[in-house]
## 1
Amino acid sequence: MAGPRQVLYRYFSPETNLLYVLFRDREGLANLEISGVRMKSAAPSIEAVLKASLREISPLVGACLDTCGGLGYSAIAMARALGVTRVHCFERDVNVVEAARHNPDSAALFEDRKIDLRLADVCEGIDAFPAGHFDRVFHDPPRLGLAGELYSGAFYGKLYRVLKPGGRLFHYTGSPGEKAGKRVRQGAASRLREAGFEAVRDCPEAQGLSAVRPPTRRES
């Protein structure tokens, strides 16, 4: 059973009209709740889902993109891999970054020199990178109803452009409910394929989808 909820940080933003609560309700990594909506699934645990997610894009190598940094757990985990040279991490909400600064579990997000944390919208920031820049992409957007543009075919096309041929993508969708979750993943999978991705696969344990940009075909 979960222990008592320990609030680490609490802030109401008049700019976004949202309440940010950083808390810990069990052993393990802290979680962030934004006006009652948890950023990370609590089941089975943040650590277990993250481990399963990163396994889908292993081995972790080269330059990595973390599209929606949140508390920084995915960026931190990728930066720990010896083969990773750089992690570009985007987070557009200054209040989320401030919550991360109050979270002991997020310290490496600000201290690890491999991590380039950018307070910006990835929809715009991604355009600054050249084609084929990234070896791995970890895409963990807010829920579909909160950030529909990050589930769009247009944005998936941007992810395809910056990913190297043969590069791997993991797209976390979460599990908002069995029927709703299936619809979200089915729609996302279809748009990923339309953007050019191959080997698009539902990964229930990781609560998302994995995909690959096909390698460049040699001329016959």
## 2
Amino acid sequence: MNKRNSVAAAAGLAIATLLAMAPANALTIGAPQVERSASDVVLVAQPKPVAEKYKRRIVRFASNELPGTIIVDTNNKFLYFVQGKNRATRYGIGVGRDGFGWSGIVKVGRKAEWPSWTPPAEMRRREAAKGRILPVVQEGGIDNPLGARALYLYKGGRDTIFRIHVTNQPWTIGHNMSSGCIRMMNKDVEHLYARAPVGSKVIVIGPGNKHGDVSFKDRGVDIFATLFGG
């Protein structure tokens, strides 16, 4: 080894030794010496989680409605899918805010996966007044307000413009937040979608009493069925 190579080797060994002796969090040679906080993650306030009572459960349920009927109790923020044998699946929901609540007996007129969204003209005008321009039609996708599944509610063969659909704001479950649609958590609406065919009767209990007299009683969670049959 010539003299030049010997000097280079010695210098390299010295640098390697210094690096090995440096603390693990030392800055690399030549890097700007910037002080770092204990964490690069900035914590922000998170929305409240969905309350336990609004999570999907099988309940002991008394009603004179036939199996397959959907009962939407907007007062208590529950949707029931009647299964018969004194049993129903209960889901937590979000419903219309003040001035947007409604009631009546309708049907599931059609169903769609990853549906497009057509905001009503009135909604577009209302939002435009607030400075927010809504599209005439928004194609289906993860940022679409209808989410992955939607059940379209019809009355007398005509679209009511109300839907049962996913919300990408799960913290609104249990609250009056929508423009009249029935909001559900993603897994819940998929669960209902798979069980409620087109033509299913839907009773929406709410303002105006247009639903008439509806006989039903929620007798509480069927723990065994919830754990093993839900």
## 3
Amino acid sequence: MTHPTSARDEVLARIRTALGADRAAPPDVAREYRTTDDRPREELLDLLVDRLEDYRAGVLRCSPSEIAATVARALDAGLGTGWDPADVVVAPGAPAEWRPAGLTEDDGRPAVDLAAFVATVTGVSVAIAETGTLVLDGSSLSGRRALSLLPDCLVCVVTADQVTGGVPEGLTRLDQTAPLTMISGPSATSDIELSRVEGVHGPRTLLVVLVS
């Protein structure tokens, strides 16, 4: 008998033991859903904007040469004018041409220290138009998970080639073993008396710079 090597292995081993050896094979899973989207690129970008704004995220569109200036405008919208660049942390893999001058690059400091920053700037791995979902994968472009959760304002840069139509298509572009974070609008809950409260489990403000 092999011993479990992780908590996941232990849980799965207990499930197999509980189910027993004499059990029917699981039925085939129907996979008739759409795995690609043939809609024009601009239509998908417009759909993504519509979904993001429906979730109360702000969207600013720009050309590739205007990214840093548009990120600065997004920070103006989220923080108000006069914000200090030193108070904004950026994912280490974000290209220089995305960054307004003076931002603090994440250097792997303790995660709790990230809460001292007022905003974060990251890239994404995939953006899913149908659901308005941004997927961060823990890469240097997306940054570690704590980077997108602790500061109160999150600015994500999305390029047009990262936008897919539906979830199945988006998932095919991702490493399924990566620490994926899926973001659909600002963090919010309505658990208490059905009253919407934003910023409970993550950033209160989500701003997307869409490059097309």
## 4
Amino acid sequence: MNIILFGPPGAGKGTQADKIVKNFNLYKISTGDLLREEIKNNTALGEKIKSKIDRGLLVSDDIINNLIIKILSKKKYYNSIIFDGYPRNLDQAKNLDLLVKKYHQKISCALNLNADKKTLINRILGRLVCTKCGLIFNKNFNPPVKKEYKCNLKHLTTRMDDKEETISNRFEAYAKKTLPILNYYADQKILHKVDGTREISQIYDEIRSIIASLET
């Protein structure tokens, strides 16, 4: 199955996606990770991407869509993807529908994590990412513990785009371009709303039930 995970910045999409991947043998495809990889590799494309991200802006649809095509065309990911951070606007959603059909796949469901702005800002400012293994933690709500985190603490860092001055721009972009997609998937009757203000385990229990119901 292919799943789309929605939610405003700081809603916990990455954390929940990691749990879904582990328990349902799916691959997490985060456009944020793909873009940061381009930046890390110091490519010409990466420099353009960095300039936009530093200003809290979204990169062009063409760049994102080309990255997604590379993923969908690989047999490794056939009908076993959870999309984290994509699509971000209605055009991308419609393009994704065309791409999954082209590669003989489908979108099984879209999950939307809801949370209030104050909670989201606190999560964003406290977020920590391991540069070695990619695990995501939060120094306020979900600090790393030895049982779950095997890497050295020196590998934990904040994302380059997790800065207070960029948060407002990201919220505005989400409200204008991403929220309308929810109606698009609601019309297809594959949208599921999830309360993202609860504890991580409670959120995941609901998500797990939804996904399990798709397999029956």
